[in-house]
Amino acid sequence: MEGKRMKDNAQIEKGTTENENGSSTMRTVETLLRILPMALCMGALVIMLKDSQTNDFGSLHYSDIGAFRYLVHASGICAGYSLLSAVAAAIPKQSTMSRAWTFFILDQLLTYMILAAAAISAEVVYLAYKGDAAITWSQACGSFGGFCRRATAAIAITFIVTLCYAGLTLISSYRLFSKYDPPVAHNNRGVEIATFHG
Amino acid sequence: MEGKRMKDNAQIEKGTTENENGSSTMRTVETLLRILPMALCMGALVIMLKDSQTNDFGSLHYSDIGAFRYLVHASGICAGYSLLSAVAAAIPKQSTMSRAWTFFILDQLLTYMILAAAAISAEVVYLAYKGDAAITWSQACGSFGGFCRRATAAIAITFIVTLCYAGLTLISSYRLFSKYDPPVAHNNRGVEIATFHG
């Protein structure tokens, strides 16, 4: 990656106390975008943990299905990370390079993790509703309608969490890469002149 | 999003012909990172399209399984987009704001699409290997071993494509957001001083 030189010099020149309103608005949006998935993940977690049904056909519990166990774990990790990162994002602190990279990488990983959890659980529920004649998988939702509806609700919530995280990766990408100079002109001469003449 | 003012002034000052080596290296890496997924997607597509098996237990074709049909479509779209974007990325052209946003958004969407395709297909193959006693889904891979092995190969390739695309989103995020100023100091005064004194 080129243009690694940070624009700190220019920033110091500009006086960081000015025009912080925009920055604090973004910090508020970011904090909310981290608190919302936390609440949603907790909701999906509770719905999924309580999801079991027993009737004449037998008994079905969320832990019988691998994809749902993964969804529960992913939701738990996501709720915990969302809480911690919301606290970290709420603190009005000068963003360092390592802090920006940490947020960027963790946000990306969480987005991929929660998207994968939502996708595979949705696939299992789809199979449970439709069945698959070619591989003789039956329509489990015919017998376990309530179980499938609750699972669908948890998955829908998880997709909303995915959207929140897609938004968060936008913010954390911006926070990280706005510190770098654009690829073509990365010799920074202009900024150095500013330092000398400012 | 704050700091919308582009750093064009500073760029023009600096003389864009200098130090373009780093930029062209990144362009080469980016072009390769777009050609590689194209080849891999074509491979996964061919393996999956040819994936069928007939034996005493019956006949199984990739199109019998919804997740595999989605994988085929996603691989096709991904191969097409990779080719077009590789051509677009290879052209040494000053990156505009709309071009950077287009690459950023499409790269993100493709990453999510191909990750979801790989994840749900992996879940189906996992179920086909292991079965699920609670919802009476049988182990299809006991009878259709060759089918499952080819599907697994296609899915493994698709996961490598996902990794390539994760790298591409890094590059396209950098290209886009390095054009913006960092959040706190976004009044650009330092850059304007450079314009006057440079």
From TrEMBL, chains A, B:
Start and end residues of each stretch annotated as Disordered: 1-24
Residues of the Casparian strip membrane protein domain: 24-163
Cellular component annotations (GO), alphabetically ordered: plasma membrane
InterPro entries: CASP/CASPL (IPR006459), CASP_dom (IPR006702)
Membrane topology: Multi-pass membrane protein
Membrane-spanning residues: 32-50, 70-91, 103-129, 153-171
Subcellular location: Cell membrane
Source domain of life: Eukaryota
Signal sequence coordinates: none
Keywords: Cell membrane, Membrane, Transmembrane, Transmembrane helix
Main localization category: membrane
Subunit structure: Homodimer and heterodimers.
Stated name of the protein: CASP-like protein
